[in-house]
């Protein structure tokens, strides 16, 4: 199905872009080590070290993003753990304001996330933002992580979009590099993916300090088209 229109498609990452990454940091770097230690009868230090080794082995692969994989790997129901703390899932500031603007201006908005299908469904239920998006894709359903050019090739095959006109906003540089290799030109990153984390000051890509800053970027691009 084609989504070509006069206005560019805006493709968003989810965690760290639309959603505050502090929740994921809390689950995977704080709560899971506690549960792993309880489950396996080891110290928190031993648990943290074991999980760190696992994370290093699977970083930037589909397994890294799979709750099903991690539940089997560590012996803890990781989806249940996420649901236990569901009240901490939070949108980043300006998210709804930006999405309302884009919808009112006729932009097609997509989500392209590495979150697995279960995690994606869970977070969409918590945030109630699905209705803003024309396409919502998990890398699990594509078969490749967003870091891989094959993800973008298959996404474009399934849901054609204007490669040279569309915008992609993501908080992870390696993901943006994968999109760049595919041919996407309008690539943007996030200054502070986690409200509890450091503020990014340098990047090969333009940095959004606030999500609503995207509005200015798009308006400037529209003006340039008019006077080109």
Automatic annotation (TrEMBL):
Keywords: Hydrolase. Its EC number is 3.1.3.5. Gene3D superfamilies: HAD superfamily/HAD-like. Signal peptide: none annotated. The keyword Phosphoprotein does not apply. It comes from the Bacteria. PANTHER family: GMP_IMP NUCLEOTIDASE YRFG, PHOSPHOGLYCOLATE PHOSPHATASE. This is GMP/IMP nucleotidase YrfG. The gene is yrfG.
